[in-house]
Write a structure and sequence with these properties.
two-stranded antiparallel ribbon; 2% strand
Length: 450
Amino acid sequence: MTTARESEAESASPEGRPASGRDMTTSLGLPYTWFVPAAAAVMVIAYLVTPSEGMTAGFAITMAAGGLLMIVGNAIPGLNRIGGGVILAILAPAVLYAYGLMPEHTATAISDFYSLSSFGEFVVAALIVGSILGMNRSLLIRAGSRIIVPILATLLLCFSLFALIGWVTGYGVGTMLFFVVGPVLGGGVAAGAIPISELIAQNSGGDSADYLSQLVPAVVVANVVCIAVAALLAFVGRKRPTLFRNFNGRGQLAVTDKALPVPIARKVAPADAVHSTVVGLFAAGALFMVADLIASVVPSVHTYVFLIVLCAVLKVFVPLPESIVQAADLWYRLVAAAFIPAILVSVSIVAIDFQEVITLVHDPIYMISTVAVVLVAALAAGITGWLIKLNFIESSISGGLGLADFGSSGDLAVLGAANRLELLPFLSISSRIGGGLVVLILSLLGPFVL
């Protein structure tokens, strides 16, 4: 049986790995004993001979490389606690290519696959449609109405404060918002940095891939800082649980006796799962085309923004059949599980200039600002949540760190460090809805600050 909507509060190990029966010795659905030799064979062939053009070889190479790097990164002690698999998948291919350790024909095959198939657009559309339509409506309305306040306050403060800092320091308002604040709070690479790079290209000209390499360092550094802050909050919560009133909820977000709703896992027959993913694929494509049509009439606003708004309106105001909700959710999970490693590898080759990454990491304003955005987000969400009767630590993690981490993989790492896995539904809202709001805000600001 296939899980249509896994419990958003599923248990996980202290290392941030789910432990709800999911086999952690598999990759892309295959046991390591099968996947590793097959993926290694694909990579050897890709290195020795020029791969065929098209999606077939493109998918095989990127999924093999991404899967192997995720396995290695998640197996390295210490690194696996800070999203090591994602970090390796997004950086290692760029390093190999930069130092001549990847053949030109292999890099070209990956680049052509990503560019000619619009792979990034395919994945982002699936993530947006699936993440919003596939959410539990009751959770979105009831829990979302609580956590949305600290999310909005955090976004308002971060954008305002760092715009001012960018102006005062001469770093530039647009540079600070689009290259630091946006990627940090955007929810990761696929749903955050990629759409933001396209917004920059739309407003400033040039190729979005050239901008993406300038956004990735902020995403990676922010995720590491998020995990450190989560661990610090958990430590202080243990040592001083009553530091002030409603400081530590011990995993409970709201200061009430009534718990907010958490989705319940349900099982779907494999045949129904196949039908659902087909519906989810079509729904994502159809809604993307509607959003793209609207964007052609209002070209100053990016297609992704209209797609986010369209999905949100449908979810809240239209009584969608459960079959469509299930389809959107399954398609989202399939894309996230199968194609996120592949798109990270693709982006690494297409968009990341490793020498530029090193230059940015050595830029003190860039690095200090990146760390500061995470710290301000955590404080803003904690204080705002506390004012509306949410517990400080839980609100800080849910509304602040949930915005600034990698997304779903970052959520688990953050919650593992904080030992508060029951908050996963609320970090999901921050990553999905909050990340969408970041893209929306930047699309509105782009014509004025870029």
